[in-house]
Amino acid sequence: FIPLNFEATPIVRVAVEPKHPSEMPHLVKGMKLLNQADPCVQILIQETGEHVLVTAGEVHLQRCLDDLRERFAKIEISVSEPIIPFRETITKPPKVDMVNEEIGKQQKVAVIHQTNEGRNTQMIHQKIQEKIWEFKGKLEQHLTGRKWRNVVDQIWSFGPRKCGPNILVNKIWPGPASKASKEATKYRDLGNSIVSGFQLATLSGPMCEEPLMGVCFVLKGEASLSDCYGPFSGQLIATMKEACRYALQVKPQRLMAAMYTCDIMATGDVLGRVYAVLSKREGRVLQEEMKEGTDMFIIKAVLPVAESFGFADEIRKRTSGLASPQLVFSHWEVRPQIP
């Protein structure tokens, strides 16, 4: 079968629970049916036990909640306020930003971080399921420049969840020629702990516990290694996580906001009002063109997802129904404000 490609990406999430705890099985069954009926909906169960509904936007969310109440679960449910995810990243690649975290008196992990430019992030987001050599070849084409030389061969892991847009580069692991050496064996035994620490660090950043995006961590330095099992394994996971978090805090950090692409059709009489609503909600106009043979203008803009709630109603109200927007999730964008 050919996989379906959906233009709309689930981005807005809410936590749902039944008003009567005894009706939880009905809610679980109803959410499964909703997911089967609407492939654009994602159903998640958080570590805290919350049942989370992820939808494409405000209108889609309301439609799904109504279907859940009236058609699938047929129970009364309580819904949390909509949650908009963010991502954490850094700006300006550091020259010498190293953090040394010691484990007792014998072991040390040195981590350098550097930015992974937006075009590289987009490449990493491509299907990891492709053939590994094909993916590697494409990655080499995008990671160009002196600082990225031979980096593809040294990539240890992606994160978070081993498929995200962050990279762990290993510059202390011996090369293929020395795979049989004792040192290489020790590093391989310790690899799971180091990668686990990296996964935890990229899953929740230091600013607001949101996942990281577009960051490359380079593991450098010498280390005297002892037993890789027992308490040391857990210590190494915690140390790697803290080293990555401290390395991030050395340089300016920024939040990345989810952005909608906004297509608006409006007459020339109400263009000023459309721009006023976009400006109020931190929107940015990219293009404006007149539709041939009509008096309608097509406006292309970007709008933060966090500012999109009530946007369609407000723009229709301000323009007396002469403008209609269409919102589709587009990309993540670095916010200029210092968090």
TrEMBL record:
The keyword Protease does not apply. GO terms for cellular component: cytosol; ribonucleoprotein complex. It comes from the Eukaryota. Residues 254-338 form the Elongation factor EFG domain. GO terms for biological process: cytosolic ribosome assembly. One of its GO terms (molecular function) is GTP binding. It holds the Pfam family EFL1. Keywords: GTP-binding, Nucleotide-binding. The keyword Nucleotide-binding applies. This is Elongation factor like GTPase 1. It comes from Loxodonta africana (African elephant). The gene is EFL1.
